[in-house]
Amino acid sequence: MSLLNQYFSVFVQGFGHTLLASIIALIGSLVLGTLFAIMQVSSSKTGRIIGNIYVQVFRNIPLLIITLFLYLAVAKVIKMTGFVAGTVGLTLYTSAFIAESVRAGILSIEAGQMEGARANGLTFNQAMRVIILPQAFKVAIPSLGNQFINLVKNSSILAFVGGLDLMYQGNLVAASSFDTFTTYIIIGVFYLVITMPLSYYVQHLETKLKKKA
Amino acid sequence: MSEFFNAFTSANMGYLLGGLGITVGVSAISVVLSLLFGSIVGIIQFEKIPFFSSFVGTLNNIVRNLPLLLIIFFTYFALPQLGIHLPIFWATVAAMTFFESAMLAEIVRGGLEAVDRGQFEGARANGLSNMQTMWHIVLPQAYKKMIPPIISQLISLVKDTSLASGIVLAEMTYRGQIVYAQNTNYIIPVLVVLTVVYFLLNYGLSLIAKWFDKKLA
Amino acid sequence: MEKIRKRRFGIIASLVLAALILLGAFWASVTIDKNKTHQDTLARVERKGQITWGVKADTKLFGLMDTKTAQPAGFEIDLAKAMTAQIAKQTNTKLSAAFVPVSSASRIQLLKNTNIDGLISTMTITPERAKIVDFTNVYFNAGQSLLVKKDSGIQSVKDMNDPKYTVLVVVGTTAAQETKKYAPKAKIIALQDYASAMQALKSGQGQALSTDNAILYGLATENPDYHLVGGVFTKAPYGMAFDHNQKPMTKQANRALKTLQENGTYNRLVEKWFHNVPGLDWHDLEVNK
Question: Does the pTM of the predicted model rise above 0.80?
Answer without folding.
Answer: yes
